[in-house]
Amino acid sequence: GFKVLASASHYWPLEDVDGIHEFRDTNGDIVEGMVNKGIYVTEKKGVTFLFFGSYQNSCISNPEVCGPEGVTFSFFWKTQDQQTKFLPASGGQVISSGFKICSNEGEGSVEFYTRGNAMMKWKASFSPPGPYWTHILFTWKSREGLKVYVNGTLNTTDPDGKVFYDYGEPSANLLTGTESGQSKRYVNGAFDEFIIWERALTPNEIEQYFTAAVGVQVLLSSTLPWSVMTTTTKPMLSTNAYQPIITNLTQERGNFHSPDTMLGYLENVSYSLPNKSLSENTALSLTEAFLKAIEDFLSLPNWLDVPQTAHIFGGLIQTIDSVMAHMAHNLEESSLPLTVEGMSSVADYTLVKMHPQALNLSHYRFPPRGQSYISIPTEAFHQKAWITIVGLLYHNMHYFFHNINPMDTKIAEAAAYKGYMISATSYLISIKVEPLPKLSHNLSGSPLITIQLTHKLTPRQYSQAVNKSNRVHLYCAFLDYSNGTGVWSNEGCVRDSGDLNYSVCLCNHLTNFAILMQVVPLKLTRGHQVALSSITYIGCALSIFCLTITLVTFAILSSVSTMRNQRYHIHANLSFAVLVAQILLLTSFQFNPGTVPCKILAILLHFFFLSAFAWMLVEGFHLYSMVIKVFGSEESKHLYYYGIGWGCPLLICVISTTSSLDSYGESDNCWLSLEDGAVWAFVAPALFVILV
Q1: What positions does the domain GAIN-B occupy (predicted)?
Q2: Is there a single domain that holds both residue 103 and residue 60?
């Protein structure tokens, strides 16, 4: 990594200036700068800025001069205040006539320009750094376009670019600040380690440099004193080195209100851990403080408003793995075997450092008790040196992995059912062993990892799963970080046994595991669809015809005695309710769910079918009145009957539509939703009528 740094064309370390001074290094000029292990620049009076001299006709000011080798620009960056509202073209910006990097309204971006015959612009956007040190690096080559790396990992690209006629400032100066007003250049943020290579670094070189850059460990919080800790090949005994981090984790609790900001803070904590040994008590204190910070993260109030929740939590789990693995690796070796274990609201956890010979059982199991666990055969631990084991059983993390698009996973079986979302349906369990255990490459061989997970179905998931018209797919899946972000995959895992209550998986690797569920409705064959459609149309048409004749008959016979006329009134109202319901039912087939007409028809269908049941109840009351209670049965009960027949259904529909209007005509057909319980607004009154 330091060899990559030594090959840079221009390098400004920005670590020796205290206040505003002029100084020169071997490759470039810094005319002004206020530095305190980085540069804080504000928007108020007394503003300071950096001005990097002139680079006329160089690769920096004119990318076409770079040739096929391209160019690389690298720096560490953070904004001073996450809540700052950046003014147009004035927020956190580094610019030359060849490129600019800026942050405006919550979006960071890199723009790259070429002059001459090829008047082109490339632009790539990324999440701005926030108030924590973040490494930004971008490369440009004429054939590959623009690539932006954040913290050593490829983040976004623009390979093609587009024709563009406005190239920023005409000057060839490399500077920080706004695009206008030469005397008023300012940046809201801090910068460190400006480096330019007049060639495009390879991804391997970028990773090597970033590893070396953060190898000189720096505590990444403005509330802490700066402390430089040199990386060594073997951890040095110093448990006190972790105390500032534990203190900072405690002090920062409750100070974050944005998931992105807090995730950036937690990631920077993982980068800032010193490569020094720690005692069992220190490891326990750090674990508890870190998991309490994770608890705060999970408790943030606005998760429903955050897009790409699964992506964010994939990054969070990777950060937790990194911190826990670091602690396990650096546990003191003087008193092996050593175990740090405990429980928190976030997870059950264990950190183990021991010799494989200390395993007297046929399997290592985490957690040792419970119905959800991971089991590793002892024969897989083939190393003679000590091993480290990190185990985590998360209590609530699975709730945040819901509505995952199957096209965003590496599960081929799930992707075959495009459009049917996937959700985690078990606890998330994680285990990491170093050195890696020796496992069978073939899932039919041995040894293999056994994972048993109890399903944690929500009421909606359970109702979908037991619905006979659905097919339930359960996948043994894990978070695959091979491309830099956590993507669900089932490669190297197979579901060996289980039912709707639990699953047993066999896998040939270790990572974070969970059971994912995908519910796919069973589709009728074309023949069945035609048959059911024909029965419906013919049956409803016949019913409508007969009901019409019935109503006409009642109208003709309406001149009979009062007693019989009352019965005819009941029959007529019942027939009318069923007739209108049948007509509305046929009409509803012409509209798609989710449309306004479909929603209106669903409400009307609810009312008229309820009315049909209500008038059947009236019929029962009237027969009871005639046959059992003979005396006094002649008096008219029209008012009561109409109140029951039309009033009660109207009242039920008003309450139902007021409380859950979204449950009408939204899924499959123009009727009440079967998934969220709204259909009980019809089923319950109907059952009551039948019981009476």
Answers
A1: 350-523
A2: yes
